[in-house]
């Protein structure tokens, strides 16, 4: 339930590499969080049922956030989206922030409307959440208010498999091809290889 970011990634890495976690009832959602996969509502619902009341505490929105969330214009061709102006509980916020980070690993960019659909938020509320995470250094992206578009920035090195994996700073010598899409493809291959290695380790447990 901690805020999505590097600190939570390191903690999830430590938990997932502990063989005992495979026996937990919430292991599936734990591993999906570690692998940065988008969480589905049905999975979150099952996890929610296992939490204690204080872990489902309600959170209040600031007046500025409420104003920003409702100050939204439906664009021609936009599909109807949620009218929610923000997360209602601590769990709700954690899942939305996680899915936003997962989205940044899949897409190069996304519209406010598209992100709102993914997070079940009004487009302006989704933009507000992304902006806050960018300001806090937990999301690498830029926001184009005119085009109503969020563009995700690629990382120069694979922090998710280095620092988040508990390995500290890892310096990789790579050839500079000058092609951002090639670099992103290479990073995806490294991430997939790491995920396969992790899955093999879990299979050996059984």
From TrEMBL:
One Gene Ontology CC term in the entry: cytosol
PROSITE patterns noted in UniProt: PCI (PS50250)
InterPro entries in the cross-refs: PCI_dom, PSMD12/CSN4, WH-like_DNA-bd_sf, WH_DNA-bd_sf
Region (Disordered) location: 62-86
Keywords noted in UniProt: Signalosome
Plastid found in the keyword field: no
Domain of life: Eukaryota
Record domain PCI: where: 1-157
Pfam families: PCI
SMART domains the record matches: PINT (SM00088)
PANTHER family per UniProt: 26S PROTEASOME NON-ATPASE REGULATORY SUBUNIT 12/COP9 SIGNALOSOME COMPLEX SUBUNIT 4 (PTHR10855), COP9 SIGNALOSOME COMPLEX SUBUNIT 4 (PTHR10855:SF2)
Family: Belongs to the CSN4 family.
Annotated protein name in UniProt: COP9 signalosome complex subunit 4
